[in-house]
Amino acid sequence: FRFFLLFALLFVCITEERFGHLILPVAIVLSVCLILAAGASIVVLALKTIQPCPEWWVLHREKCYYFSTNKTTWNLSEEDCISRGAQLIVVEDQEELELLRQQSRIHLTFWIGLRRKEGWAWINRQAFNSNCMSLTHLIFFNLDGSHTTKGSSISEH
């Protein structure tokens, strides 16, 4: 945008020297182009502000979450998230863990992006840090504390 503005000013200066009678029409056209470009930038920013998440997703701390109501296996839940351009949720801090606790009251059970392959690891290949949170908080999200083979998924975007 700055390059375009500098080019426009340089063009106006050169045009004035050679074609003095055209300076006003050229200046008007360039001004209209600059206003349209600035307006388009503002519209794009406004749309991002108004709708930061796709429909049916929830915004929480600059991330979008999709809480599926389909009860299915972990593998199918992971595929569902991927098909939405997302991944199963990877819990990064206590606030995100609290979001899961709140949602467990609504959805009862759901899958997250933690799996066991030679130890616990997140699907983004980060090692699970048991100093930050307990596995019991993550595995037994159903209110009665029972284990399940089917659950909803939470995708993050």
TrEMBL record:
User: What is this entry's stated membrane topology?
Assistant: Single-pass type II membrane protein
Q: Which residues form the C-type lectin domain?
A: 60-124
Q: What is its main location?
A: membrane
The entry lists its GO molecular-function terms as:
carbohydrate binding
What's one Pfam family the UniProt record gives for this protein?
Answer: Lectin_C
What keywords is this UniProt entry annotated with? Lectin, Membrane, Signal, Transmembrane, Transmembrane helix
Question: What is one term from the GO cellular component aspect held by the record?
Answer: plasma membrane
Q: For this UniProt entry, which segments traverse the membrane?
A: 25-47
Give the signal peptide, or none: 1-20
Determine if Signal is one of this entry's keywords. yes
The reply on keyword Transcription is no
Lineage, top-rank taxon, reads: Eukaryota
The compartments listed are: Cell membrane
For this entry, the protein name equals: C-type lectin domain-containing protein
